[in-house]
């Protein structure tokens, strides 16, 4: 595997792009299961391989870039993701870790994550708030897109009952919505309580790319790289390698 530049001379090396690349607990190496023939198979495999993170309870999610590294046909991936999103099998979330970063989470996992966040919020506020139920029943299941406008949000919530300004604040504070920076009347749907994981994605990318940048030819054998641990990310090396391969910052070369 390599950082997108020169020829290499050993089995399979990783190279990093001009930009600047934990140990796996799985018996198969990344090289053995790098390419899948089907988007759903890839999603289930990566869900099962999602790293366990100390002191953080988060349901598994897959980065769209990771799918691109594992399914050869990107058009097929996009088409199948759109179908799965519309069928409410999974949800797509825009992340703040990069302009084109999207997370994919199975609906059942998202609902678990949401209920955990709601329980925490209601414990903190010492009350039960109907807006969370309205959000799940009337918004989540009828709005599969990654974002929603303010008026549409109010309209859907109002099917459940009378909506107050504080209700929208509760949804934002629970981590279920974030305001779009360029349009305050639009919201992104969000995965609650994954702030530390998002920080790990950003820091892990930088650390991995920096590690490869320091190599003489900006490359390293994949089997060796997989066994290295990252200091700045709670996510494992496999997670970051798939991400950077799919985004084009790294590439593999057979030699």
UniProtKB/TrEMBL annotation:
PANTHER family, per database record: SERINE/THREONINE-PROTEIN KINASE 19, SERINE_THREONINE-PROTEIN KINASE 19
Location of region: Disordered: 1-26
InterPro entries: STK19-like
Family statement drawn from the similarity comment of this UniProt entry: Belongs to the STK19 family.
Protein name: Serine/threonine-protein kinase 19
Species per Swiss-Prot/TrEMBL record: Ambrosia artemisiifolia
UniProt-listed Pfam families: Stk19
Domain of life: Eukaryota
């Amino acid at each position: 595997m390599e950082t997108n530049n020169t020829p290499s001379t050993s089995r399979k090396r990783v190279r990093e792009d001009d930009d600047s690349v934990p140990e796996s607990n799985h018996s198969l190496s990344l090289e053995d299961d790098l390419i899948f023939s089907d988007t759903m198979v890839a999603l289930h495999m990566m869900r099962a391989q999602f790293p366990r993170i100390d002191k953080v309870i988060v349901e598994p999610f897959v980065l769209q870039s990771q799918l691109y590294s594992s399914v050869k046909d990107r058009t097929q991936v996009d088409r199948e993701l759109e179908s799965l999103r519309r069928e409410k099998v999974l949800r797509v979330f825009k992340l703040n870790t990069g302009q084109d970063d999207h997370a994919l989470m199975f609906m059942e996992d998202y609902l678990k994550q949401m209920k955990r966040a709601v329980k925490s919020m209601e414990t903190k506020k010492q009350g039960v708030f109907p807006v969370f139920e309205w959000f799940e029943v009337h918004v989540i299941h009828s709005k599969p897109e990654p974002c929603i406008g303010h008026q549409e949000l109010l309209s859907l919530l109002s099917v459940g009952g009378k909506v107050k300004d504080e209700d929208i604040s509760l949804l934002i504070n629970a981590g279920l919505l974030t305001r779009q920076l360029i349009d305050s009347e639009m919201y992104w749907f969000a995965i609650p309580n994954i702030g530390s994981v998002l920080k790990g994605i950003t820091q892990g990318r930088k650390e991995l790319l920096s590690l490869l940048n320091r190599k003489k030819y900006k490359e390293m054998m994949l089997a060796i790289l997989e066994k290295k641990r990252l200091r700045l990310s709670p996510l494992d090396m496999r997670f970051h390698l798939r991400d950077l391969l799919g985004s084009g910052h790294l590439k593999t070369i057979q030699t």
